[in-house]
């Protein structure tokens, strides 16, 4: 496909894989089809009147040379489904994007990838799931994939970078900006750490309720499997999981408390037999054929020798469920000042962690 053809058709933002196939069958190539983009052709492709009007206006205003200059200024690249560097795993799904814009290293998409998805309103428990699973995936040589939304997505990207790994962020808007804007800095870190940010949308496309489901299919399609780390009923993470199932990919779900609505989506996936219940990252990696060289839970506590009886009491009082300092004061029968001082040392030694809101867990 000619570069200008790719730039123009991607700017029109109307070519699905089904429409691409129809144009190839009719004209032999998109290069030939470009000269025949009319109201009648668009109508024959199933476009509604509003879409036809929008596409024809965008065609009139499109200058491929200027558009390419704008992409280059922002260090954004464009590939098509016809290019050899197009991700092979994504090409296997029924409805792959015909065009992909990206910033960063596209090569990592050929490595073992695992989608990690969940709620925007991440709970403390959800953060702990990310903290447990993501470093183990990175140690296993995997690349994480998420959507760069607030909550679980952002936490997955941050933890991947912190663990010296690479991560893929698929966004539901054009790459002219990052949504939410609070993740602009994180997007830059992803690229600087060897990761990549992807979008099928032209630069000026804003995020809306239609673009996020489209993004979800790319997340599922790029990945060997999808792990639902925290999801309420009907959440976008559940949609990603269902898409992964449609593509013949493995789906895993982390369980939560039965009283927690933030995990109802996970529980429904498990109950319906759509996802395997997993309690550790090793279960995920074993299922998809990745074996981590080390475990990631409990080793620090097993190897750590308490420095005194007070520290020993605190360690015995800590559990994997979050507890406040007041809870520990009551259980260990020690003063608050001593508890706080000892918890600081235990955190420095990798035995305990403050998971937010003054709540502590053992590792």
Could you please describe the fold and organization of this structure?
46% of the residues lie in helices and 14% in strands. The protein is an alpha/beta fold. A hairpin with a 2-residue loop joins β11 and β12. It starts with a helix and ends with a strand.
What would the keywords be for this entry?
alpha/beta, elongated, 3-stranded antiparallel β-sheet, 363 residues
Strand order of the largest sheet: 1-2-6-5-4-3-7-8-9
**Strand content of the residues, in percent?**
5-15%
What global shape is seen?
elongated
User: What distance separates the N and C termini?
Assistant: 53 Å
What is the helix/strand order?
A: HHHHHHEHEEHEHEHEHEHEHEHHHEHHEE
Radius of gyration: 24 Å
> What multimeric state do the chains show?
single chain
Which structural class matches the secondary elements? Answer: alpha/beta
The percent range for helix content is: 40-55%
Mean pLDDT: 91
* Major beta-sheet overview: 9 strands, mixed
What is the number of beta strands?
A: 12
Number of helices: 18
Please mark out the parts with pLDDT under 50 across 5 or more consecutive residues, or reply none: 293-302
Write the layout of secondary structure elements.
Blueprint: H1 3-12, H2 17-27, H3 30-33, H4 39-44, H5 49-61, H6 64-73, E1 77-80, H7 88-91, E2 99-104, E3 113-118, H8 124-139, E4 143-146, H9 152-162, E5 167-170, H10 184-192, E6 196-199, H11 211-222, E7 225-230, H12 236-246, E8 250-253, H13 264-271, E9 276-277, H14 281-287, H15 299-303, H16 309-317, E10 323-324, H17 325-332, H18 336-348, E11 352-356, E12 359-362
Helix pairs in contact: 1-5, 1-6, 8-9, 11-12
